[in-house]
Amino acid sequence: MIQSGCDLIEVRDASVDFVMRGGFFAAKETLSAVDTVNLTLNRDETVAIVGESGSGKSTLGRLIIGDQKPTGGSIKIKGQEVRNLSRLVRSRLAQPVVQDPSSAMDPRWTIESLLEEPFRIHRELDSRDGAAIRDILSAVRLSETVLTRRPHELSGGQLQRVAIARALLLEPEILVCDEAVSALDASVQAEIVGLLKSIQKERHTAILFITHDLHLVPRIADRIAVMYLGQIVEIGSTQSVGGELSHPYTRALFGASPKIGRRQGKRATLQGEPPSPTNRLGGCPFHPRCSQAWNVCNSVIPALTATSDDQAVACHLVTAQNRAKLEMAAEAAK
Ligand SMILES: Nc1ncnc2c1ncn2[C@@H]1O[C@H](COP(=O)(O)OP(=O)(O)OP(=O)(O)O)[C@@H](O)[C@H]1O
């Protein structure tokens, strides 16, 4: 399933351009942080967004939460255009879970006050909110004893649980987890990933899981979208992405990740840096770093093309290999 049958989030040709000015006399430059991205996300589904630093993952996450306006295209949640919704409505649809929860928490407040805050913003506190807070603490497997503590008195894992609890209080449809476990130890990462999965099972929440921790991806994601210079260059099920017919960038990116990397025969490595996002080259954006690039790659932009029912790749070579494979299969079937 390349794109899920969409009933929750539909991102269509979404772009975010930032206009940059180097100095007073310097010409303006346009940085394309997200470039014509298409993505769907369903209830009960987790899509991992992976890619090197600067590939546009967080900007895509902010688009879905509504903290970033698109310069092109559309982002719909339950059929409603996100940019037209008020902040309050948006926060009931999509909530962020960030890497450093303490940065969003006033250190002077108790955990109880921090958990009451979403209700205070939305309406007057009422007696049901105490019960909702106790329920949410139990959902994130925290004891009520944390309520009287302050953020600095909790461990990193406990604090991330409080952040997840806060994000869940308004019963959002989607959690956008942006490097939400990256700062934690491996064992705590595994606990939080397990917690997110069980919350998803109980509440049917969709999760966008933005991460550099590629080893976590198979544990949490149903699908993976690989971003390079603002574009999705590969998308598909967790089983297919990184497999035989995969983008050279994906193979290089995942080459360093034993769990995913072992699916490919020879391990590729990622050489060099991505080109400047303000100075787009012609053809495939990955061609200057691709050891398999051929003539067409520096002149024609490859379209994201299905290689199977559950994978699409934007690579001329993969498209040609897939075509050859299909022709051979058809020939053999004659
Ligand atoms: N507000 C902004 N103004 C100008 N450029 C921005 C802004 N926000 C992001 N960018 C640029 O957009 C590009 C994509 O950034 P983004 O943070 O989305 O990437 P990322 O893949 O999440 O990176 P990382 O993994 O390091 O967080 C980068 O080149 C970044 O410098």
Structural write-up:
About 30% of the residues lie in helices and about 20% in strands. The chain contains ten helices and twelve strands. The strands form two sheets. It has an eight-stranded mixed β-sheet with strand order 6-7-8-3-9-10-12-11, sandwiched between helices. A four-stranded antiparallel β-sheet has the order 2-1-4-5. The chain is globular. Adenosine-5'-triphosphate binds near residues 31 and 54.
Give short descriptive properties of this protein:
334 residues, alpha/beta, Rossmann fold, 8-stranded mixed beta sheet, 4-stranded antiparallel beta sheet, 12 strands, 32% helix, 22% strand, globular, binds adenosine-5'-triphosphate
The residue fraction in helices comes out at 25-40%
Total beta-strand segments = 12
CATH superfamily: P-loop containing nucleotide triphosphate hydrolases
Low-pLDDT segments, ≥5 res: none
Name of the CATH architecture: 3-Layer(aba) Sandwich
Question: Which ions, cofactors or small ligands are bound in this entry?
Answer: adenosine-5'-triphosphate
User: Which structural class fits the helix and strand makeup?
Assistant: alpha/beta
Shape annotation: globular
Return the average pLDDT rounded to an integer. Answer: 89
What is the ordering of alpha helices and beta strands? Answer: EEEHEEHEHHHEHEHEEHHEEH
Question: How many domains make up the coordinates?
Answer: 1
Count of helical segments? Answer: 10
Largest sheet: 8 strands, mixed
* Quaternary: single chain
Q: Quickly name the level 1 CATH class.
A: Alpha Beta
Strand content: 15-25%
Radius of gyration: 21 Å
Distance between the termini: 28 Å
The CATH topology:
Rossmann fold
